[in-house]
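Section 5: illustrative case.
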């Protein structure tokens, strides 16, 4: 079965007896071989979460298996997806003027360590065009002013649809997306920011942290919602810092943490390891 096509089933539903038995029985009946299975029972929300990776018989596809799975999903009132493991999310990567997260994502993508297809890099500045083009990725400049914000977002949505994307990665994109766009793409926009919020807001948060003698700095990767920087968290990373580090050293360390946290979140999303659970997430690692 090693060479057989692999699929990923990810689901959540109200918890009740028999869910695992129903899922595994159906897969067995369809000649599938389970290679990974993880589950979580959230006692607080009363919901059950499961991720299963399995090989299917020759001739079976994720689409054909999904049709057969529908009855089980309906019986247990599941929110679910069943996808070909080889199917890579097609992403728009958006960035402003800071390139550390973009550079990290493009490097991981070029080495095969990031399981997405980068459709294009979109920016409201032009200084990172060379970086994108050197990786062979189309660069699209969409300038934004207060007067053109609505038109710029319409261009972004049209581009997302035209390129067949199913994910937006905000790699230090320093513009606020509209509530309408956030609601249109729930669980499909990933953002990264420093983890000083809400303590150090506004400009130069690392300089503010330095003045307060902060000993831990970090980054948060999360899904974007209309509530600014408060969407369901996918990953957080922290590192220790000390009194000998000046603000520039803190900024440099913070950029490293941001890049790693964002790349991890994007990869886990691509591997269907992240399942929304209200205002939070279940991440099967």
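Designed sequence:
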């Amino acid at each position: 079965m090693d060479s057989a096509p692999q699929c990923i089933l990810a689901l959540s539903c109200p918890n009740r007896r028999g869910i695992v038995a129903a899922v595994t029985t159906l897969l067995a009946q369809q000649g599938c071989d389970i290679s990974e299975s993880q589950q979580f029972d959230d006692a607080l929300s009363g919901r059950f979460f499961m991720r299963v990776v399995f090989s299917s018989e020759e001739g079976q596809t994720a689409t054909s298996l999904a049709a057969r799975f529908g009855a089980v999903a309906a019986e247990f009132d599941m929110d679910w997806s069943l996808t070909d493991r080889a199917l890579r999310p097609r992403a728009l990567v958006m960035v402003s003027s800071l390139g550390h997260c973009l550079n990290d994502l493009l490097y991981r993508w070029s080495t095969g360590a990031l399981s997405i297809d980068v459709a294009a890099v979109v920016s409201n500045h032009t200084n990172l065009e060379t970086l994108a083009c050197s990786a062979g990725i189309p660069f699209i400049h969409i300038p934004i002013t207060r007067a053109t914000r609505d038109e710029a977002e319409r261009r972004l949505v049209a581009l997302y649809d035209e390129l067949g994307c199913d994910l937006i990665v905000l790699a230090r994109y320093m513009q606020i997306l509209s509530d309408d766009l956030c609601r249109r793409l729930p669980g499909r926009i990933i953002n990264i920011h420093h983890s000083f919020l809400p303590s150090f807001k506004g400009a130069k948060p690392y300089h503010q942290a330095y003045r307060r003698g902060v000993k831990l700095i970090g980054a948060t990767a999360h899904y974007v919602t209309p509530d600014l920087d408060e969407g369901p968290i996918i990953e957080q990373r922290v590192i220790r810092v000390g009194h000998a580090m000046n603000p520039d050293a803190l900024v440099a360390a913070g950029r490293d943490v941001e890049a790693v946290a964002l790349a991890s979140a994007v990869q886990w999303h691509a591997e269907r390891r992240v399942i929304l659970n209200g205002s939070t997430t279940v991440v099967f690692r």
